Amino acid sequence: MNPHSTSRSGGAQDSPDPPDPADPEGPAVHEGAVHDVAVIGAGVVGCAIARELSGHDLSVALLDAHDDVGNGTSKANTAILHTGFDATPGTLESRLVRRGYALLSDYARATGIPVERTGALLVAWTREELDALPALREKAAKNGYAHCREVTAEEVYRRLPALGEGVLGGLTVPDESIICPWTTTLAFATEAQSRGARVLLGHRVTGVDGDGGEDRGDRDDGATNTGSGVTVLRTPHGEVAARWVVNAAGLASAELDRLFGYSRFRVTPRRGELLVYDKFARPLANSIVLPVPSSRGKGVLISPTIYGNVMLGPTAQDLDDPEATGTSEAGFDFLLAKGARLMPRLLEEEVTASYAGLRAAIDHGDYLIEADPARRYLVAGGIRSTGLSASMAIAEHVRELLTTAGLRAEPRTGLPAPPRMPNIGEAGVRPYQDQARIARDSAYGRVVCFCERVTEGEIRDACASPLPPAGTDGLRRRTRAMNGRCQGFYCGARVEALLDDGLAARREGQGAPSRERGHCAAPAPQPAATAPGEAPA
Ligand SMILES: Cc1cc2nc3c(=O)[nH]c(=O)nc-3n(C[C@H](O)[C@H](O)[C@H](O)COP(=O)(O)OP(=O)(O)OC[C@H]3O[C@@H](n4cnc5c(N)ncnc54)[C@H](O)[C@@H]3O)c2cc1C
């Protein structure tokens, strides 16, 4: 723990009462508590950072503007756990994606995050793309990944018979994997909270007071200090004070950076639209089909999803509006045209859903992760297309940069076991398939959402979990309810009623609901019970 801090490690226990949700302007409920570190942004990156830091002797607050974790870009991506084979060698992104792949693969086994090692096949459709394959293999080797292999067109069609005509060859990437992005973010946040971090949802940071800086009269080099040592973050629910601040606000990271006095980068929201095909399409694409990348990015791919569907996308369109997450007719047409070329048979299947995510593109060409020791501030920006894969390595890197900058962080002993997350992946055993579990608790035998086979027991568990959903969107990400073919047309009313009941039961059990999820007297997450290798992956 930072010796300058006035709060104790495991700040959740020391915190003042949570805000009254009925009073959105609420009092300044966080007055008095000074955290060692405040992390702004509870996407996959911020949650990973909060998890990492709370494994050390530090009091941590994790703030997000939304009423749930993982509600920004982290909920809408292509959900590939990248090896980093195609990153630009020598970049921070290359190093952190590679390390992140290893860390997240292990973490997924420990916590039950669904992962499937489907592998990927990079497909060349033109002579130019075919000629580029050897260089891509060499690039992969420079990125520390030596398992790519060039294959003939016959081999490509043997693996993926549904591909359109005209394939000239391919490159295999056997370790590319698909992962559940929702469970990943939730697992990080759940573990951070179980380690004592305060999860402050609905806490949009609107202003920054105080000069950060160092405490008066405390510098080894004898220079005069003028700083108070504390930065105060203003939110609609009061002020949150911290010795160090990490900006992991994704699309808003540049805006927040300016509140800290910087003007060093601009975020361009780059929209990626995707189509999700029905589960009948899954046999068509048992591995990820990648295009040969161009300077515009990774291009349009076809990928199986962890939930048993097939995905086509994403597009890449630069926008001005960081909230423009709607899909467009132009995007739909573009994807259909691409799909017709890549895999015509896919277009015969039904589209279950379409969605769009916004990449936080910056003009830097690499992640922008920099610490300012004088301001006690760190920005993690430009985490554009690979943040899910790199998240745990970014967190490790952030902790190292902070300690180099002066944060004292000793690893804690006696940490709680990592949470065991509910399996929502198709490759693992789901509750409706688990006879022994149903025999113990019949709620797992009562299917509510028939498209996705979600049971009453899972909805009840989600409501009772340490970080319950704030609404049906959050429930979808925790259980898959209403995510299937009917999109909630048949089950929506029943699912909503169960959600309302579950959240009401939770409130009755512990008093008023709280935006400060770190305060919930929720059941502790289940300790990891399985050994590596037993996860659904
Ligand atoms: C179409 C698409 C496909 C992708 N595919 C992949 C892939 O296959 N594999 C991969 O590894 N990566 C992929 N990515 C990239 C990955 O999704 C991102 O890098 C990652 O989600 C970024 O996470 P984040 O935590 O930085 O941002 P976010 O998830 O956006 O989180 C930032 C959070 O900050 C909060 N916030 C913002 N302003 C404030 C404020 N003032 N106060 C409080 N909170 C605030 C927001 O509410 C948000 O929750 C893809 C991205 C897109 C868009």
TrEMBL record:
Residues 521-537 have a biased composition (Low complexity). It comes from the Bacteria. Signal peptide: none annotated. Residues 1-29, 208-231, 506-537 are annotated as: Disordered. Residues 213-222, 506-519 have a biased composition (Basic and acidic residues). Residues 447-500 form the BFD-like [2Fe-2S]-binding domain. Residues 36-401 form the FAD dependent oxidoreductase domain. This is NAD(P)/FAD-dependent oxidoreductase.
